[in-house]
Design a protein that fits this description.
The chain is of the alpha/beta class. It has a 7-stranded mixed β-sheet, with helices on both faces. It starts with 8 loop residues before the first helix and ends with a helix. Helices cover about 40% and strands about 15% of the residues. The longest helix is centred in the last third of the chain and has 27 residues. α5 runs parallel beside α6, α7 runs parallel beside α8 and α11 packs parallel to α13. The chain has 2 domains: about 220 residues, Aspartate Aminotransferase, domain 2; about 100 residues, Aspartate Aminotransferase, domain 1, CATH 3.90.1150.10. The radius of gyration is 22 Å and the shape is globular. It binds pyridoxal-5'-phosphate. The site of pyridoxal-5'-phosphate has 12 residues, from α5.
């Protein structure tokens, strides 16, 4: 059975939009896309050099090649989207029939899987994380109904911070073979001490991995994220993607970050973030009012406070905003603290100490 048999039949059957860029080739006079023939007025010099009057390449080969090298897959095994959010949305649209199919997820986890399922009219089958915030692999492997077409695993998980082992991912992919795609969201994997699941794609045709330049690569504003998966899944999703998803300045920023110099800077920053995460975890554990700091493999800490609403309010007054994740199942009393610069982290700690002293 081809993995494509899991996709919605109407998506398999439909004709994709043919973008004007495909037929442009080496043409000197481009009159096929109703674009303006001159650069936009009022843009800065560096933007003027980017031909912003022209539609961008739907999937620029230079960026595909760079990301393929970075992630260790073929360039036909990558879909670049507007953040990994777009890839999540496209997967749900392509594989879940409204009112019939479902996604599986393990709450508390990243909210966009549920949002995309709701927009598509797909049901949600939830297998909650266990008491230690680990994925319940047995239940996922043994109890998911046939309606599930996509199993989302977030590793490291947002907002709790723990990774799912490659052995567990393999087991789930095997159990779902012929039934569902398993999508491992690795938005934070650069901060983790585990290898990426992308190395499993070659052996598991029903496995996909989400990566992003938004976190470790400091490019959240550029909106560049990817799905890594078998070439036929990538080709299917390209069919339903809007024709010109990647803004030219974003592609240019991504290519600049992925040069040798850019990578050296990024590696240093990742090391710094990990060191700061450990410093903060140790300092927080010693603070009065802190009940629990979850072990984290990401660039954030999930922390349980005696009085999280008060801490949250006091921090806002002090000009520091963190994420209140208390509404997530199993996370009552928790706040999620992103790791910032050393100075920002120290400021957060000072405010927490002052707040406790005043309480
Ligand atoms: C686990 C996870 N996946 C995906 C995303 C979306 O990232 P992107 O900026 O690539 O859309 C986020 C953003 O916070 C996230 O936490």
């Amino acid at each position: 059975m081809s993995v494509l048999e899991l996709a919605r039949p109407e998506i398999l059957a439909m004709q994709a939009y043919s973008s004007a860029r495909r037929e442009a080739g080496q043409a000197e006079v481009m009159l096929n896309a109703n674009e303006a023939p001159w650069p936009p007025a009022g843009t800065q010099t560096d933007l003027r050099a980017m031909s912003l009057n022209r539609y961008p390449d739907p999937q620029p080969q230079a960026l595909l090649d760079r990301l393929a090298e970075l992630y260790g897959v073929g360039s036909d095994q990558i879909l670049i989207g507007r953040g990994s959010d777009e890839a999540i949305d496209l997967l749900v649209r392509a594989f879940c029939r409204p009112g019939v199919d479902a996604i599986a997820l393990s709450p508390p986890t990243f909210g966009m899987y549920a949002v995309c399922a709701a927009v598509q009219g797909a049901a949600r089958i939830e297998t909650p994380l266990d008491a230690q915030f680990g994925v319940d692999v047995d239940t996922i492997c043994e109890s998911l109904p046939d309606s599930v077409k996509l199993v989302f695993l977030c590793s490291p998980n947002n907002p709790t911070g723990a990774c799912t082992s490659l052995a567990a991912i393999k087991r789930i992919a095997d159990a779902m073979h012929g039934r569902a795609l398993v999508i491992v969201d690795e938005a934070y994997v650069e901060f983790a001490d585990v290898a990426s699941a992308s190395r499993l794609i070659a052996r598991h045709e029903n496995l996909g991995v989400l990566r992003t330049l938004s976190k470790a690569w400091a490019l959240a504003g550029a909106r560049i994220g990817c799905l890594l998966a078998g070439a036929e899944i990538i080709a299917l999703l390209r069919k339903i993607m809007p024709p010109y998803p990647l803004p030219t300045p974003s592609v240019s920023a991504a290519l600049a970050a992925l040069t040798a110099d850019g990578m050296a800077v990024t590696r240093q920053r990742i090391a710094l973030t990990i060191a700061e995460r450990e410093r903060m975890a140790n300092a927080l554990k010693r603070l009065p009012g802190v009940l629990e700091v979850l072990p984290s493999q990401a660039n954030f800490l999930c922390v349980r406070f005696e009085d999280a609403p008060r801490i949250y309010r006091n921090l806002i007054i002090a000009g520091v905003v963190v994420r209140d994740v208390g509404r997530y199942p199993g996370l009552g009393g928790f706040l999620r603290l992103s790791i910032g610069t050393r100075e920002e982290n120290s400021r957060l700690l000072e405010r927490l100490i002052q707040g406790e002293a005043a309480a």
